[in-house]
Amino acid sequence: MKAGWKTVKLGEACKIVNGATPSTSVEANWGGPHCWITPAEMGGLSDPYVSKTRRTLTDAGLADCSASLLPTGSVILSSRAPIGHVIINTVPMATNQGCKSMIPRSDLDAKFLFYFIKANVPLLESLGTGATFKELSGGKLASIEIPLPTLAEQKRIVAILDEAFKGIDEAKAKAEANISEAESLLRSHLNLTFRIPKRDWIETKLGTIGRVSMCKRILKEQTKQTGEIPFYKIGTFGKQPDAYIPSSIYNDFRSKYPFPSKGEILISAAGTIGRRVRYDGEPAYFQDSNIVWIENDEKKVLNNYLYHFYSACEWNSTSGATISRLYNDNLRSIDIVFPASLSEQQEIAVKTDSVVSEVKKLGEAYQQKDAAYSFLKASILSQAFAGELTA
């Protein structure tokens, strides 16, 4: 820590206040002039300063519970579900019991305290206790030590952090805009290529190019038998297998029931409808009617073309009483357009592969940048509270 700085406990540097919730069944408690915030609402905020809340309390609501109005400039921390959201109120505000609020004394700048809390979220999380979910107690929060330079030095550090974080956020927003634009261009390419017919193209229904099939259901007890054949449910489709079944079960089902051929496109018919995977021909089994495919001999439409066509589909031909799903008749009725020439189909598929690959690279680059931005913020905060920031 920088020479000349002192260290105090948060319980000494500010007053720590608990929140509360009045009875939700009493209508008179709600809709009044007093702002009231919860961790869930805090988690959706991007600005550190808050002046409005989704729900408000009446005077009766405040009186109905132990919540109190915090003065402006308090630092509000979510202390459970999860630990670590933090805001500064710009109007008097109450909170629910999932928050611990800090009212800083006169020699502690609220924004300096805000940044200190942001820098120490891992520590706060480690101090949480509880079986169902972790909660940070007021006593644990009060025991945390905060470095305390002069108020002028605090404001200087805050100004440096504000400027640095503004630059990082602007760079992040630019990167997000770039990936968003790339994804928009990909969607446009898919729509223009696979949904709008060109001269001499064929317009028909998916059901005319091949038979729609699904695997036979495997019994639950059979999936619990350990084996070497990957088994995929809808939730693990295209990811890690849900289980491994014996080859005897796999061979028996494959000999009796429809099974995809190498290169055919498997489609999720429930959950996230329309997810697709190119079957690589390796031994694997798939969960009955939740995964469907078109038995395609590629005399009319290449599987490579079909794979990208599915990306352009709007999977709105679904039905179901409780959970939407894609039934065989729905799939058969979907309109498809394609060139009669298989070589032209392949050319389109190869070009689309290239476009998709470039967008994927941009997405991966964005993920790397996003991680770098987070690391940079953490590094700058660490320097700030070690007294290492210079103007």
Report on the structure:
This protein has 391 residues and is an alpha+beta fold. The protein has 3 domains: 6-149, DNA methylase specificity domains (Adenine-n6-DNA-methyltransferase TaqI, Chain A, domain 2), CATH 3.90.220; 151-177 and 344-391; 201-339, Alpha-Beta Complex (Adenine-n6-DNA-methyltransferase TaqI, Chain A, domain 2), CATH 3.90.220.20. 39% of the residues lie in helices and 21% in strands. It is built from 12 helices and 19 strands. The chain has a 5-stranded mixed sheet with strand order 2-9-6-7-4. The chain has a 4-stranded antiparallel sheet with strand order 12-18-15-16. Strand 15 and strand 16 form a beta hairpin.
Q: Notable features of this structure?
A:
single chain; 391 residues; alpha+beta; Adenine-n6-DNA-methyltransferase TaqI, Chain A, domain 2; 3 domains; five-stranded mixed beta sheet; four-stranded antiparallel beta sheet; 12 helices; 21% strand
SSE topology sketch:
Elements: E1 6-9, H1 10-13, E2 14-18, E3 30-37, H2 39-42, E4 49-50, E5 55-57, H3 59-63, E6 75-79, E7 83-89, E8 93-95, E9 99-104, H4 110-119, H5 121-127, H6 138-143, E10 145-148, H7 151-194, E11 201-205, E12 211-214, H8 220-223, E13 229-232, E14 243-245, H9 247-256, E15 265-268, E16 276-278, E17 285-286, E18 291-295, H10 303-312, H11 328-332, E19 335-339, H12 342-384
